[in-house]
Amino acid sequence: MKTRAEQCKEEGNKCMKDGKFTEAVIHYSEAVKHEPSSAILHSNRSLAFLKLDQLYLAMEDAKQAIKLEPSWPKGFFRKGEIEFKAGQYQQALVSYKRAMILDPSDSGIISAINKTNKEMAKDKKEATRTPILYTILGLVVGALIVSADQFLTKAPALKFLPLQVVLIAGCGGIGFAIAKIKRYLIVSQRDSSLEEPLDLLKEMGEHHEVTPQNSSPHTTTSHTHHSQAAGRQRMRKGKA
Hints:
By secondary structure, the protein is mainly alpha-helical. The protein folds into 2 domains: about 5-105, Serine Threonine Protein Phosphatase 5, Tetratricopeptide repeat; about 125-190. It is about 80% helix and about 0% strand. It is built from 10 helices and no strands.
């Protein structure tokens, strides 16, 4: 007879095949409750989270699978998949290679390594090429501004060559700076995708817990005196 964990695992697997990833997470989570030491269950749930783009949760399960079964290549492979999805190609390559050490004959791991190498080379090329393109674009814009000033206005503002050169160079510098900022934002976004998300409910709960403690004794005392005075006033009206 199948255990409850096995039943939930099969239901989760069926949901994965049907593309119902949220339901798969629910079933795998129930299975994990009954069998928390199963690396396979954590790996399966990690994949479901990955399909939902919940990279932090996917990574947590992948790490747990590795912790439970350090000699199991699937745990490192799953970790590599998550890192690849996050755009962290160097880390993904390390994880895939660790998986390959444990199982050198797995064609899926070899294919993932080749794919990561290609994507990493493409990313490096893009990081090098973008500043050059943006700088050239800035120089072109600067040259157009100077040309427009010289030929489309009756009284050009940039009469002297040094000013024209400074303007064109400045536009090129702005283009270069924009490219660098763009790259910084891309890298920051990749890094943040694996960070723990902010628990707003927890933060709000802590805020509400702290609020009563911030009320001063003077405020409490004033409220008490006000209540007592109001009570005496009502009593006097009642007697009258």
